[in-house]
């Protein structure tokens, strides 16, 4: 009897140890319902490392932009300035003619972006909903135009714009966008194409039964359903237009183009020369000498509107990315 009890107690201990081992294994390795600690640890370590790589230049720029000349020369000060020297921002804004350039940047980036969204949505809807002769060929040309490096067509495009008297005006960005050839327009057309393909056909057919035509069904059914794609295209387009400096200098405002339009990124490229001119005509001592802190402040002023816009719209942007996974017919 005692031997049976001992065997039973050993079995119970073995079962308890197996259960505990299984719990520890599930805790570390995870299960189908829940990720384990090892996987979570690896994921978070990777995210922290990747996030640090992207955030380090931004944090460095913010830190240096608030330093005065003494902090820059002091080797003991690396990240935290002795005092927040905001005069760097005022001097940088003055040399860049910030308010005027800021509003011009909004126009230069915003107007083509709005046109890009409208035209690309029309073209993407046409490819997604209609079958017509040469559709596959046109889709192939669309993809080829995106793969083709822009540097190959840059000079012929400049000659064409020069002959059409578009160089030096905002029409150099507006007219291509109106014709579906805006900055990175092919990828936006493909985004709308893929999204409109996922919208259930029964909704369009029901609208046609109720008497709606193709254009009305596009405006009443497809466009409200495509809000996620519209937000995605809008954000990418305005950021690309905002950060585009070479084409802006080539077509609108640059050394060889005397136009009335410019942008913050263009002003940033020629910041040293502009700052020295502004410091020369200002009263003595009103502007500090050009240094790394002033340059960092100018860079921060150039990207701050885009960062602020993304901070405001990032919730809608994330939702738009999630919602693009809806299934259709």
**Count of individual helical segments:** 16
Q: In CATH's first tier, which class of the largest domain applies?
A: Mainly Alpha
Helix content: over 70%
Q: Please count the beta strands (DSSP E, at least 2 residues each).
A: 0
Q: How many distinct domains?
A: 2
Structural class: mainly alpha
Written as H for each helix and E for each strand, in order along the chain, the element string is: HHHHHHHHHHHHHHHH
> What would you give as the CATH superfamily of the largest domain?
MetI-like
The biggest beta sheet is recorded as: none
SSE diagram, text form:
Layout: H1 2-29, H2 37-65, H3 69-73, H4 87-95, H5 98-129, H6 135-147, H7 150-163, H8 171-178, H9 185-198, H10 201-209, H11 214-225, H12 227-243, H13 246-252, H14 264-269, H15 271-281, H16 292-323
Helix pairs in contact: 2-16, 4-15, 4-16, 5-8, 5-9, 5-12, 9-12, 10-11, 12-16
């Amino acid at each position: 009897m005692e031997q049976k009890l001992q065997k039973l107690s050993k079995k119970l201990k073995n079962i308890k140890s197996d259960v505990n081992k299984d719990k520890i294994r599930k805790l570390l390795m995870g299960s189908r319902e829940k990720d384990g600690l090892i996987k979570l640890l690896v994921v978070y370590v990777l995210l922290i490392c990747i996030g640090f790589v992207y955030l380090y230049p931004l944090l460095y720029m913010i830190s240096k932009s608030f330093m005065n000349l003494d902090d820059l020369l002091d080797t003991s000060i690396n990240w935290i300035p002795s005092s927040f020297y905001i005069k760097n921002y005022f001097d940088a804004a003055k040399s860049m003619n910030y308010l005027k350039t800021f509003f011009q940047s909004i126009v230069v980036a915003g107007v083509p972006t709005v046109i890009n969204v409208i035209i690309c949505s029309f073209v993407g809807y046409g490819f997604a909903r209609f079958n017509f002769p040469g559709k596959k060929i046109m889709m192939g040309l669309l993809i080829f135009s995106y793969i083709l490096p822009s540097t190959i067509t840059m000079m012929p495009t400049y000659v064409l714009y020069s002959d059409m008297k578009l160089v030096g005006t905002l029409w150099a960005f507006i007219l291509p966008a109106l014709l579906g050839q805006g900055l990175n327009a092919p990828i936006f057309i493909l985004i709308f194409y893929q999204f409109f393909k996922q919208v259930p056909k029964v909704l369009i057919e029901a609208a046609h039964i109720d008497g709606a035509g193709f254009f009305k069904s596009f405006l009443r059914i497809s466009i409200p359903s495509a809000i996620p794609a519209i937000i995605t295209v809008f954000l990418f387009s305005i950021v690309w237009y905002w950060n585009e400096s070479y084409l802006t200098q080539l077509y609108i405002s640059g050394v060889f183009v005397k136009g009335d339009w410019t942008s913050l990124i263009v002003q940033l490229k020629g910041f040293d020369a502009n700052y020295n001119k502004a410091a020369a005509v200002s009263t003595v001592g009103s502007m500090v000498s050009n240094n790394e802190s002033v340059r960092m402040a100018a860079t921060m002023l150039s990207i701050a509107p885009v960062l602020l816009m993304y901070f405001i719209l990032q919730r809608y942007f994330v939702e738009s990315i999630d919602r693009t996974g809806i299934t259709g017919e």
